[in-house]
Structure formats: C-alpha cells, structure tokens
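Supplementary Note 2. Why include the ligand at all?

Several targets in our set were suspected to adopt different conformations when bound, so apo predictions alone were not considered sufficient. For every target with a known small-molecule partner we therefore ran a joint prediction. The input for flavin mononucleotide is given below.
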Amino acid sequence: MFAPSFFRWGYKQVLKPIFFRMDPEVIHDRMLGAGSALGRFGITRWLTSVFFAYQHPMLEQEVLGIRFSNPVGLAGGFDKNGKLADIIPSVGFGFEEIGSITAEPCAGNPKKRLWRLAKLKGLVVNYGLPNKGAEVIAKRLEGKVFRCPIGVNMAKTNSQVCAVDGAGIEDHLKSIRLFKDIGDYDTINVSCPNSFGGQSFQNPEAMDRLLGALDSVQTGKPRFVKVSADLPISEVDAMVTVAEHHNVQGFIISNLTKQYERSGIAQELAKQGITTGGISGKPTQELADNLIAAFYARCGDRFVLIGCGGVFSAEDAYAKIKRGASLVQLITGMIYEGPQLIGEINRGLVKLLKRDGYRNISEAVGVDYRS
Ligand SMILES: Cc1cc2nc3c(=O)[nH]c(=O)nc-3n(C[C@H](O)[C@H](O)[C@H](O)COP(=O)(O)O)c2cc1C
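The joint prediction is reproduced in token form.
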C-alpha cells in the first residue's frame, strides 16, 4: 500500500506547522532518533514500508555494479553518523549516503547553525561537519548487512590542523582506510563550505594531490567526488581532466551554494540576521542542473553522475536524470514536503517514463544531450 495523499495532507497540515515552529536542529535530531528507533524492529520497518515505499521494475538499475531498486537516495549530511541505514529502504529510498564522516571526531561549528528559508524553500546549513569520527562509526558499522546500497561520504576534519593540504590528505586517507570494507561506494566531499580551510581540495592541483594519495588505497568500491553548486562551469573541464587520471568513477552534483546575491537569498538571510552558511534546496536547483548538463556534455557515460539539489518532485528528479544523472539525492525536499515524497517521486518517475516511451530509468539518462 502506498497512501501518499493522506500522508502529504498529514505532514503539510499537521506535522510541518508544528515542526516549523521549532528549532530546525532540534527537529533534525528528533527525526534521527525516530528513524533509528523505527529501523530497529522488523515490524516497524515493515509497517513503514507498507505506508511509504513504492517499488517498480522500471526504476531498477545496475550502476557501477551496484543494484539500485530506485534512483532516489538520501543525500550526505542528514545521517552523519550512519544511524538510519535500517529504515531508509522502508521510507522508499533506493540508497543512502552516510556522513560526512571525518577522520577525527568533531563537534562542528557553534550553535545556532541550521536555519529555514521558508520563502525560498531552502535551508541555511553551517553545521561544520559534526560527527563521531571515522573510528567510532566504522567500528559500529563493521560487518553490518545493509538493506540498500550505502555511500560513505568523507570530508577532511573541520580543524585548523587539517586546513593545511598535507594534513587534510592524511585525514582523508585515515577515513578511507577505516571504511575500506564498509558500504558500496565512497564519496570524497571536497565541497563542504563550512569548515576550516574551505573547499581547498576543489582546486584542480590540490584535488590532483588528494586523489593521487587516495589511489594508493584499493577499496574495490566506486569512488565519487562531490562538487559545490558554486563550481564555475568553466572549471568543469579541469575537474574532469584531473578525475580521469585517478581512481574516480563519478561525481555528485552538487553540494550547497554560497551565492547569496542570487534569487533574493541575501534579503532572506538579512531578515533572520544570518551571516554565514551554505544554502540547500530550491536555490541550488538551477545551479546543480546546469552543472550536471556541463559534466555530462564533457564526459558522457565515462563518469556516473548523481544529481542533487532542490529535488521536490518527480519532475525535478526527471530533469536531472535527462540532463545526465543516473541517480538523484535529496534532503531539503523531504523536510518541506514530508517523507512520503520519496514514494511520490518514484511513482511519478514511472508515469513520466511511460509517457516518454522508456522501459527503464536508465534509458532516460542524458537524453537531453544524446539526440
Ligand atoms: C542539514 C544539511 C546538512 C548537510 N550536510 C552535508 C554533509 O555533511 N556533507 C555533504 O556532502 N553534504 C551535506 N549537505 C548537502 C546535501 O548533501 C546536498 O548536497 C544539498 O543539501 C542539496 O540537496 P537538497 O537541496 O536536496 O538538500 C547538507 C545539507 C543539509 C540540508
């Protein structure tokens, strides 16, 4: 059973008005607690899937040797410590990215560090990578059998020490070694806008050094690089050229934006006195879509693209897929629309594929640029 209209109504009319009156980080923590509790028991997992998950063979595909039951994943940053893996498929997701995990435990930036931009359907995120650290998380997840594909998103520890290139590389190496046998793919997050030293590894020379060092660790898992929504289109070629020389199979496009001058962001930030942070949600959508198109035009099927940023509907997801994304991820859409959104997107994708005469989601990947 999939009952989207009831849950959409319940979320929008009852839960969301309550949640949106409370501090966003408090709600985030409570959702993590609830999700982790629901994932603990077979009966609660089953009931959740009865109400939320939507399956269809047209959505199943194999990407880089990994079987995905549908193309919609939870993006990195919601489940930083990997506590939700058991409930994620029941909510309807086809995969999950845990993290960002850093080599050392990190408390993140001082609070307050998460805000809503309700008018723009976005969030302002200044978490600064809080997480329990690679050792603790890897120990807990070691040997665990996951019920859906899991990506391990790794970033350099948010500290002054790791802001320096060499220490940042060592930090990444420690995480990737600890997670060698955990999860199905790895993401190297070079685009966190909220940590010491900023996005230093997004610069092609520094990225070359980082990826070169990581090449020495053979994990057998595909490796993705996650890029910023603010990556200039003119730098896509350089980034792909660097990746071509290393053990990289794909890109995640994209992380948050800091272009405050776009789409009235500055005014909305000023209203709440916010002076820092990266923006998620609708303000990232067009930036991410343009970057996906630019990456796909440059590399075609040579790299796998995962599209992320402002996915609030099946149409949003389909637009990213047609531009070249094999898979999509989201966080903010689920917060604004409710957890039934994942099933709604999957159901909507099947309708869109049928309308356009495709038999499987993989046939729609990059069609905007293939004719
Ligand atoms: C609360 C929050 C925390 C995030 N933390 C991370 C993170 O730790 N690592 C990361 O790679 N991206 C992080 N992101 C970025 C998301 O993964 C995603 O790239 C971005 O939010 C755009 O997707 P969305 O519009 O669907 O939220 C975070 C986003 C949000 C909203």
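The pocket of flavin mononucleotide is lined by residues 75-77, 80, 100, 114, 123, 125, 127, 129, 153, 189, 192, 226, 255-256, 280-281, 284, 308-311, 330-333 (CB under 6 Å). The radius of gyration is 19 Å. Comparable summaries for the other entries are listed in the accompanying table.
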